[in-house]
Amino acid sequence: METPTTDASKATSWWQTLPGIITTVTAILTALTGLIVAINQTGWFGPRTPPVVTTSSAPPPSVPSAPAPPRSASPVPPPGPTSAVGLPALRDYRLGDVTFTIRQAEVAPRASEKDTLQVRLRLSNHQRTDANFWNSSLRLIVDGAPVAPAGGLNEVVPGQAAKDGDVTFVIPHGTTGATLTITHANDSTEIPLPLTAPP
Predict the structure, then answer these.
(1) What residues contact residue 48 under an 8 Å CB cut-off, 6+ apart?
(2) Tens-level pLDDT at each residue, the chain (199 residues)
(3) pTM assigned to the model
(4) Cβ 100 vs Cβ 121: under 8 Å
(5) Torsion on CA atoms 74, 75, 81, 85, rounded to nearest 10
(6) Nearest alpha carbon to residue 110 among 79, 143, 88
(7) Distance CA 191, CA 140 (A)
């Protein structure tokens, strides 16, 4: 025999099943949402959206500039025209066991009030030992005063050999004559040089 149900018992039964229904529906919706998101990421509903990459707007690294070349205190004048020096008829001078030979001489402008006299010499060593070929053996007499060379001639000539070298003198502009003196061991000689100022 069935027991008749009352309205109160029906209401209680309905409220007891409602949370279960809500929980079930929520679980189903969550599962469907996750499934749709997964399918969307695979490109099923359309092309995949590339990820957005952000770049920093930092300025490019600065490149250090090259340092400026140092400025010269006194500018070097450009080389000017040279004037050949007339060489004497006698060009070989025997001093002891060596012979000095004048091979060339020329005058060039150096500054507004100075010129440069450059003389190319050859030292022939007749002895078996070495001989010094240097500025200490050379002087230029200008207006009665000896002038030491301005260059760096300092060579050693082996025995039974010869070597060329350039000796440089700084002279006043317009000098028309000078005397080259050469000293070796206990011997010396004087060689007059007529000079012509460069144009």
Answers:
(1) 41, 42
(2) 455 555 555 555 555 576 777 777 788 888 788 777 777 776 666 655 555 555 555 556 666 666 665 554 444 444 557 888 888 889 999 999 999 999 999 999 988 899 999 999 999 999 999 999 999 999 999 999 999 999 899 999 999 999 999 999 999 998 999 999 999 989 999 999 998 756 5
(3) 0.58
(4) yes
(5) 30
(6) 79
(7) 9
